[in-house]
Amino acid sequence: MNKSRSQAEDTSAIMVNGYRVRPGMYLTNGATVTLGGVCFTIHSRGAVSCELVLFHPEEEEPYAVIPYPECFRIGNVYSMIVYGIDPDQTEYAYRLDGPYQPEKGLLFDKTKLILDPYARLVAGQHIWGRWEPYDQRKAFRGKIVHNSFDWGENDQPNLDFKDLVIYELHVRGFTKHPSSGVKNPGTFEGIREKIGYFKELGINAVELMPIFEFDECRDDRMVNGERLLDYWGYNTVCYFAPNSSYACAKNYNGVDDELKTLIRELHENGIEVILDVVFNHTAEGNENGPYISFKGLDNNIYYLLTPEGYYYNFSGCGNTLNCNNPIVNDLIIQCLRYWVTAYRIDGFRFDLASILGRNEDGSPMSKPPLLERLAYDPILGSVKLIAEAWDAGGLYQVGSFPSWGRWSEWNGKYRDDLRRFLKGDAGLRDAVAQRIIGSPDLYDPVYRGDDASVNFLTCHDGFTLADLYSYNQKHNEANGWNNTDGDNNGNSWNCGVEGDTDDSAVLALRRKLIKNAATVLLCSMGTPMLLSGDEFGNSQQGNNNAYCQDNAISWLDWTDLEKHTDIYRYFSNMIAFRKAHPILRDQSGPAACGFPPTSFHGTSPWDLNNSEEERVLGVLFAGRDEQDRKDDILYLGMNMHWEAHEVKLPQLPDGLSFRVVADTAKGPGEDFIEKPSFRTVVAGQSVLLEPRSILLLEGAASS
């Protein structure tokens, strides 16, 4: 190592391998541009030395290797400012030396290039699907980001959680199909081009499936002539870096600016942005997986390991992050703070969030430090925190996920109970009644408030809504695992014919069941979440685990919007109806008529016990519309039986009568009455609920 000093230079700077360096900013992780230089900071408890390795873009050999002087290390932190380098023409990685003792979880190898876990961009990933065998690949490298984006006077919507209508989508699949009509398909820019569609539909929050840098080529393989990739992106390479192949711009900072532009314009249109984040495992996999980052830093700190040094696999993906270790804790906190401050993200959905509550031996903790820190962190104070409250290791916490009054949950019991009820299964009426009014049997309103339940019937994982009523069985043959992958308990029903059919009666029934599902979901208390494409009948041909299908199976076919306009209009009308009626979103002021906020009814009003048929359920919502100074009363009548049932309605106060808002037994154009003045008055105190149909009524002044 060549060192020299110059009296003309700052006395704290020295020369190392031809570069002027000085001690850096020890409290700032990652690569940070400073006046005249770049600060590189990284930490490792087990390493005995560290080298910074610098590359010109796309070049295989480094242009500089700079060992950290021992005096530049404080505790376990290496920090160094390097002068005289061009940030825009530099990619970087590290080499760390230390003990190699796999039985103790120590995997240091000074020949391996290690990606900075705090890198803000990852080099070489901007071309989707560019494939090389792992043993021939260039190592992942970090890029140096300039945070110069102008947010202007952009304000975040800051919507109440109860007022959200969440729309889950895959960045690439949303616009990749030629029918999407955008100029930049499969990109962040492609989504920006569809903002008008979001507004027309009525959704006010988009939930993006993973956009952290991931390796879509990790499990690259050919099946029946089709190339399969890790399309969904649940294999994170770097938590601080956006996936550069989702940008249409390929310039140095292109993905950063493009993503921020999308978020800014969504906010300007009143739409929040929620990210699906994967802190339960990484792309490094198990003992046979590649070195990318954590394995070469502190493998025994970042991952849950058995006493023999093997990886616990509570994620089902080879490894499990040791989330409640303080080091990993800090990384996750700093990551989320970064996305909130640098990208103005409004919320996070945590994949397999129960893993975030496991101890170092894998056991569940009653008060997980990470979850508590996230709940109380001041930067995250107004951010939505949504847990997928289970994991692949058998831990299921729906209704019991540690919350501190801040965490919401994907309500898996809502999905399962409603799916079974809506296809006609018996014995679910009482459970469904609870699900529709916000699942108070799961979420104590005193301790969990109105924001605990995210209600959904479909999501990326499982059948689409159209497939839910077109297939009895999953059809994942295209995935290459002999149809052994994916959920075997989808609670679906094919309406008498498996898959595609020309039978008009079957097709009509399927459309009715889709509208039934939309009606119940958007009339349920809690926060509804829709899967993109469900609003116009998108199908995946029965594939309920399309994680590897970067093709027409997963891409939204926008011609379906033209084919199924009635389904789209029904969804849009129901979303607008929900927004117009606060009693569907929270417990508003008490109704002057004395009705309780919610009540349940069978074929006779105010009576479930004597109902003739347990597949019939009426839910009455009642509250006070203070703006219009009148009671707001809605009746949701559901008959999931294959026979019609006459239902007696609750008696309304004098001067009010029930009017028909929606009737899924009717055909297109008559299933939802858009104009209140056109809604017909229910004659008498009884209605006939047609087989497998839903009737939505509102109490209105008698004409």
Mean pLDDT, nearest integer? 94
Q: What proportion of the residues is helical, as a percent range?
A: 10-25%
Class by alpha and beta content: alpha+beta
Give the overall shape: elongated
- Summed up, the helix count is 14
Describe this structure in words.
One of its GO terms (biological process) is glycogen catabolic process. Keywords: Glycosidase, Hydrolase, Transit peptide. InterPro entries: GH, GH13_cat_dom, Glyco_hydro_13_N, Glyco_hydro_b, Glycogen_debranch_GlgX, Ig-like_fold, Ig_E-set. One of its GO terms (molecular function) is amylo-alpha-1,6-glucosidase activity. This protein has about 700 residues and is α+β, with helices and mostly antiparallel strands. Among the domains are: about 130 residues, Immunoglobulin-like (Sandwich); about 150 residues, no CATH class; about 120 residues, Immunoglobulin-like (Sandwich), CATH 2.60.40.1180. It has 14 helices and 32 strands. A hairpin with a 2-residue loop joins strand 1 and strand 2. Helix 8 crosses helix 9 and helix 12 runs parallel beside helix 14. The N terminus is likely disordered.
List the helices and strands and how they pair.
Layout: E1 14-16, E2 19-23, E3 30-34, E4 37-43, E5 49-55, E6 64-67, E7 73-74, E8 77-83, E9 91-97, E10 100-101, E11 106-107, E12 121-122, E13 142-143, E14 166-169, H1 171-175, H2 188-192, H3 195-201, E15 205-208, E16 212-214, E17 221-223, E18 226-228, E19 236-242, H4 254-268, E20 272-277, H5 294-302, H6 326-343, E21 347-350, H7 369-376, E22 384-387, E23 407-410, H8 412-422, H9 429-436, H10 445-448, E24 453-456, H11 465-468, H12 504-522, E25 527-531, H13 559-563, H14 565-580, E26 598-601, E27 616-625, E28 630-639, E29 645-648, E30 656-663, E31 686-689, E32 693-701
Parallel strand pairs: 14-15, 14-25, 15-20, 20-21, 21-22, 22-23, 23-24, 24-25
Antiparallel strand pairs: 1-2, 2-8, 3-4, 4-8, 5-6, 5-9, 7-8, 9-13, 10-11, 12-13, 16-19, 17-18, 26-27, 27-28, 28-32, 29-31, 30-32
